[in-house]
Specification:
308 residues, 4-stranded antiparallel beta sheet, disordered N terminus, 14 strands, alpha+beta, 10-stranded mixed beta sheet
Length: 308
């Protein structure tokens, strides 16, 4: 398949594949600053120390935790990325918990990446992050990580880098928009992850990504281009977003989602009210799963008619 004539993004959109319910799954995200190029598996195929990357991947493989590499976004950062210029005072690390009602984010600066191996990963899921991450600073301003990992899929670099450059050059967001390693779902590129809440977006352009940041700064979810929230299952992502859209519930942490008594039923609670949402599973025509991958029909969950 020719990437130039039939990229996975075009095939997915042409096949009518829904994005809702496709957010990558993680309750905690660890983002590590690393300039320079990324390979297919960034933690072990970049200028980040690969033995440490291998140990980090092994440590989180059975946990709802994902580790990303990030690099500065925007035209002013391009030279530093290309030359792999390390931050003079060490690399920054963000740790974000995306659990509904308990979202939080801290940052720290390290000169020795090996310090990351000493983190109590289980504690990151439950404890106060500032008590777990050494010399942590609480971060109140949201981040946006835009996947530009072109070695993983060509669409991510070709389509997403202009988005990252545009937002990274905005003075109001400078230092809060970063290029990232693979987020998953490259057929929805450009994709982005908003931290700490774990809201994930796709099929963005610069204007839409700017709307995501404006909404996050105002404490709201931008429902357009939404893929879902990373701390929820695929079905729960769809149920949550569907109820939010129907009732204009926009607060970043305004809902909790639980499984209903019947199969395919979900209960979304917000501000003392509960909403039932049933889902149906549907399928569609074959589309490329990636620019270099196989072709297969898509399946997805969609909202059924809302219950009482």
């Amino acid at each position: 398949m020719s990437v130039a004539t039939n990229p996975c993004t075009r095939g997915s959109a042409h096949a009518g594949e829904p994005m809702l319910g496709t957010a990558p799954r993680a309750q905690v995200w660890i983002a590590i600053e690393q300039p320079g190029p990324y390979g297919t598996e960034a933690l072990t195929d970049s200028r980040f120390p690969s033995p440490i990357g291998e140990q980090l991947l092994k440590a989180v493989e059975s946990l709802p935790i994902k580790v990303l590499l990030v690099r500065p976004a925007g035209p002013l950062a391009l030279r530093r990325n290309r030359q792999n210029q390390q931050p003079p005072d060490g690399r920054k690390v963000w740790v974000a918990r995306a659990t509904p009602g308990r979202s939080a984010m801290v940052s720290t600066t390290i000169t020795d990446p090996g310090r990351l191996l000493a983190l109590d990963l289980d504690a990151l899921l439950e404890a106060d992050l500032a008590d777990v991450v050494p010399q942590a600073t609480t971060e109140s301003a949201p981040l946006l990580l835009v996947c530009t990992n072109g070695r993983r899929d060509a669409c991510c670099a070709r389509l997403a880098r202009p988005v990252a450059d545009s937002l990274g050059d905005e003075p109001r967001w400078r230092g809060r928009v970063w290029e990232s390693s693979h987020l998953g779902g490259h057929r929805f590129a450009p994709t982005a992850l908003q931290l700490p809440h774990g809201w994930t977006y796709g099929r963005l352009d610069a204007s839409a990504a700017g709307s995501v940041m404006e909404a996050a700064d105002a404490g709201r979810v931008e429902l357009t281009h939404l893929r879902g929230r990373s701390s929820l299952t695929s079905e729960a992502q769809v149920a949550d977003a569907s109820v939010r859209a129907a009732h204009q519930i926009l607060g970043l942490d305004a809902t909790t989602v639980t499984a209903g008594d019947d199969a395919g039923e979900w209960v979304i609670s917000s501000a003392g009210r509960s909403y039932q949402q049933r889902l149906n599973q549907v399928s569609g025509p074959a589309r490329p799963e990636s620019c270099d991958g196989s072709i297969a029909p898509w399946t997805a969950f969609i909202a059924a008619e809302e219950g009482p």
